[in-house]
Specification:
The complex is a heterodimer of chains A (265) and B (233). Chain A is an alpha+beta fold and 265 residues long. Helices cover 27% and strands 28% of the residues of chain A. Helix content of chain B is 33%, strand content 26%. Classes of the chains: A alpha+beta (265), B alpha+beta (233).
Chain lengths: 265, 233
């Protein structure tokens, strides 16, 4: 055997003669995995004392081109679940299709699809996590980071993350992409630990999420002003607020900044 | 003369629209030893009379657990019951792994029904020769299903299948309101055993031939065999 790192494992030429490279260069193997093309940026979310809030902007970017301005990235599933998707938008649309199929499947041979045997956030999440892990294990991932938010039938809030690797985790505050760097620190000023959830009401949670969306619009170059926000409240149910806009931005300071150092005018 | 030309296989309808092979399969259930199922608002119970071939042999098991929340008892061909209960186990497992969801008893019934139905519609196969009583506790509470190899699966409050099951059935019909109101699992088991007694002829119940299973709001599916049934005798 040849131990030269560039032809490692091949028969040695001294013993077997010149190696026929066409043997191992038959063709390029099948390729599934490429790159995300049209992408959605952060999804941010948090729990509060009576439910969960989740938000995502309405932009789908084509590289640095802010290509599509009216894309909904929060997908409701029934009356108690919202799936927020960031990452590749074509894969997001595939996830939408899967969720639609899941709803149809749940209606089949089910006499109480809207109450006792309705889809729960935990069911939706487990299914998506299984799909995500299976796809990455086939080297053909769905290029997304997904947050499933909702209220379980026992009334407890549900918030859990899964991404293209099939990695999952749960926390009182969750965000994908840029949101994980910029929004999470802000959300954790309100909810630092599990016990803070009880002290946080809907108004504070919603305001915190809106503030975070503003910061993300300031600092994320692939974000947009327009966003959607969904609240799933234990008592009031699903409130899906579309066409929201970042408000009260502060730009007045900008006129006083001149040059990059020594410039005075 | 008088030979039945319409019972050779499951794909032949008789002139009156009957499937004789399926009806013969239903007969196989009646050869099996009796098993009783009943439920209240919070619990579901199976009680079964086990049989042995002779005094030297063991008693054939009648109750099979499918998941933490579901199980069944059988009357008829035990191998067929193994096939069907293994299928139910798989489906419970699938639901748990993929959806983090307990398979609903209703769905389980529909799945068994579809599986049995296939065997009555194509050539070369045969219907299952076993009847099942399925109990489970899911999001909508306790359930009892009666499965027949014709593909019929019915939800019931109480039922009995197997040899001389009519006695137990009649008893359950008569005391329906009593056991529906029972709030204690032990009491429900006792009325199940009492129902089973109505179907006995030569045998008497003892720790060897009685088998009990219960599932409910605070009890995962549990089988009681041997010494642990003595308190119900």
């Amino acid at each position: 055997m040849n131990h030269d790192p560039f032809s490692w494992g091949r028969p040695s030429e001294q013993t077997y003669g010149q190696y026929d490279h066409s043997i191992a260069q038959a063709s390029i193997p099948k390729m599934n995995t490429q790159d995300p093309i049209v992408t959605g940026t952060s999804v941010i979310s948090m729990k509060y004392n009576n439910g969960v809030v989740i938000a995502a902007d309405n932009l789908a970017a084509y590289g640095s081109l802010l290509r599509f301005n009216g894309v909904e990235r929060l997908i409701p599933v029934g009356e108690n679940t919202i799936v927020g998707v960031s990452g590749d938008v074509s894969d997001m649309q595939h996830i939408e299709y899967l969720l639609d199929e899941m709803k149809i499947e749940n209606n089949y041979d089910n006499s109480s699809p809207d109450d006792e045997e309705a889809l729960q956030p935990s069911y939706v999440f487990e299914y998506l996590a299984a799909v995500m892990y299976q796809r990455r294990s086939k080297m053909d991932p769905l290029w997304n980071a997904v947050i499933v938010a909702g209220i379980e039938k026992d009334g407890s809030p549900f918030l859990r993350y899964v991404n293209l690797l099939g990695v999952t985790y749960s926390s009182p505050t969750l965000a994908t992409g840029f949101g994980a760097h910029l929004a999470i620190p802000l959300l954790r000023r309100v909810i630092d630990k599990e016990t803070d959830i009880e002290k946080t009401d809907l108004a504070l949670a919603e305001q915190t999420i809106r503030e975070s969306m503003k910061v993300l619009f300031y600092r994320d170059a692939r974000s947009s002003k327009k966003y959607s926000l969904a609240i799933i409240d234990k008592d009031k149910g699903l409130m899906f607020k579309q066409n929201q806009e970042v408000e009260n931005m502060s730009w007045k300071f900008a006129k006083d900044i001149k040059g990059y150092g020594t410039q005075k005018i | 003369m008088f030979r039945n030309n319409y019972d050779g296989d499951t794909v032949t309808f008789s002139p009156t629209g009957r499937l004789f092979q399926v009806e013969y399969a239903l007969e196989a259930i009646k050869q099996g030893s009796v098993t009783v199922g009943l439920r209240s608002k919070d619990y579901a119970v199976l009680v079964a009379l086990k049989r042995n071939a002779d005094e030297l042999s063991s008693y054939q098991k009648k109750i099979i657990k499918c998941d933490e929340h579901m199980g069944l008892s059988l009357a008829g061909l035990a191998p067929d019951a193994r096939v069907l209960s293994n299928y139910l186990r798989q489906q419970c497992n699938y639901s748990q792994l993929v959806y983090n969801r307990k398979l609903s008893v209703e769905k389980a019934g529909h799945m068994l029904c579809d599986k049995a139905q296939k065997n009555t519609q194509s050539y070369g196969g045969r219907p299952y020769g076993v009847g099942l009583l399925i109990i489970g506790y899911d999001n909508s509470g306790p359930h009892l299903l009666e499965f027949q190899p014709s593909g019929n699966t019915l939800e019931v409050y109480g039922s009995a299948i197997g040899a001389r099951s009519q006695g137990a059935k009649t008893y359950l019909e008569r005391v329906l309101d009593d056991y529906l109101a029972i709030t204690d699992a032990t009491e429900l088991i006792k009325s199940g055993v009492e129902a089973l007694r109505q179907s006995l002829k030569d045998e008497t119940l003892n720790t060897d031939n009685l088998s009990i299973a219960v599932v409910g709001k605070d009890i995962p599916f549990t089988i009681y065999d041997g010494e642990s049934v003595s308190q119900y005798l």
